């Protein structure tokens, strides 16, 4: 019984990816504002309702990896090895995300996002949601001696590290620079040098 469910899940994922790839191609070829959901559906050979069953809005088509990124960030907290410091684990994940989003192939997409007020606003809402999800994961970790406010603050810093670093000439160096400040904030939050926070005192 599990094999048919697996096939359905794979088919659903393939349809979602096809829609997202088609939408991005059309947006880059014709301009984001000139392409509608009906255009995407027609080009992908699916119904408009199928597009909306996978993506809640036109903006979501541009950020189709949003959920995966959010999961990666929370897993950096929940799936780290026992006694592995938190901040280095988060830095490692943010560096990987920045590397992905600053690849040459991503440049046209970010130019499109930066040129669209609707996409910029949507990206801001994504960052706020990611920060809240990350803060929740931190607050739920019994090994982290953090208040809710501290969790939300550190999480905002981490998400901002991603958005700030990707705009720099050397994004990975920027991640390291920003995380030195995050480690300083952690030291203030946990002055005893809690082992789950940083790699050292």
Let me know the number of strands: 0
Q: SSE order, as H and E? A: HHHHHHHHHH
Any idea what the shape is? globular
CA-atom Rg in angstroms = 19 Å
Termini, distance in Å? 53 Å
Supply the helix-strand structural class.
mainly alpha
Averaging pLDDT over every residue, what do you get?
89
Could you describe the largest sheet, including whether it forms a barrel? none
Which percent bin holds the helix content? over 70%
Fraction of residues in β-strands: under 5%
> Which stretches are poorly predicted, pLDDT < 50 over at least 5 residues?
none
Please count the helical segments. 10
Task: Summarize the helices and strands and which ones pair or pack.
Blueprint lengths: L1 H29 L6 H8 L3 H7 L3 H5 L3 H13 L7 H16 L5 H9 L1 H23 L8 H18 L5 H19 L12
Task: Explain this structure.
The protein has 201 residues and is an all-alpha fold. Helices cover 73% and strands 0% of the residues. It is globular. The protein starts with a helix and ends in a 12-residue tail after the last helix.
């Amino acid at each position: 019984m599990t094999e048919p469910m697996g096939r359905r899940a794979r088919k659903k994922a393939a349809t979602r990816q096809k829609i997202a790839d088609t939408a991005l191609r059309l947006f880059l070829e014709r301009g984001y504002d000139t392409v509608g959901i009906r255009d995407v559906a027609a080009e992908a050979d699916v119904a408009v309702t199928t597009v909306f069953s996978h993506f809640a809005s036109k903006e979501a088509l541009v950020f189709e990896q949003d959920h995966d990124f959010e999961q990666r960030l929370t897993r950096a907290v929940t799936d780290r090895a026992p006694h592995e410091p938190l901040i280095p684990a988060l830095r490692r994940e943010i560096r990987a995300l920045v590397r992905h989003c600053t690849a040459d192939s991503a440049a046209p997409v970010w130019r499109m996002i930066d040129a669209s007020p609707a996409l910029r606003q949507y990206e801001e809402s994504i960052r706020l949601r990611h920060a809240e999800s990350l803060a929740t994961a931190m607050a739920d970790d019994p090994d982290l001696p953090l208040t809710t406010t501290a969790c939300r603050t550190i999480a905002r810093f981490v998400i901002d590290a991603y958005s700030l670093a990707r705009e720099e000439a050397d994004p990975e160096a920027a991640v390291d620079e920003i995380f030195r400040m995050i480690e300083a904030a952690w030291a203030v939050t946990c002055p005893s040098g809690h082992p789950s926070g940083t790699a050292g005192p």
